[in-house]
Design brief:
Layout (H helix, E strand, L loop, with lengths): L12 H20 L3 H14 L3 H13 L3 H14 L4 H13 L3 H14 L4 H55 E2 L16 E2 L8 H5 L1
Antiparallel strand pairs: 1-2
Length: 209
Amino acid sequence: MTVTLYNLVSLTATEINVLAEQERAKGNEAFRAGDYEEALQLYSSCIMMDSNIAAYNNRAMTYIKLERYKDAIADCNAVIQLEYDNVKAILRRALAMEHLEKPNQALADYETVLKLEPTNKIAIAAVKKLRKPCESKKVRIIMKITSKAIFFRMKIEDLTNKINEGMTFRKMETEICSCNRAPSSSRQSTPLPHFKNHYCLGNDKLLTA
């Protein structure tokens, strides 16, 4: 491609605007023809002469075609700084974010478009597509947290049961007595171990009470 050089110093503002628009129009033709490299140079030439919003938006789309997504986002940001509600720029930034595998940022931009244009078909389709993975991810996270909570609850219950069992065993140890004061049967001359009672050794207070 042959780059046309202009002596902008000698031109009036109106003439510069006309030349810039001509460069943008040529860029559009190159873009429609699929020659994105030529379109990129023409849009850049237009922006150098007159950095208008249309040229930035067009160049952003060209960067996307060339898979230069970060450059596309930079151009979209330049437009949004001038026009916060520029739907084209927001949509193209969202598309670039998708290509960069940043679904949350892309979804935020598409949702912004729907606030500005509730019937925008591109944004509606994109939001439906991007929300599904996000929702399923939330479900997986909730299930994971729930399963961990159940596991820890089971562990705590098991530990509590063991503690209670240990306490019961220790309590029984302190209450079982093997003294010779317990009643015995005719078959068993020596008293068997038994729960402490008023007649046991060490319970003299109970005997005198």
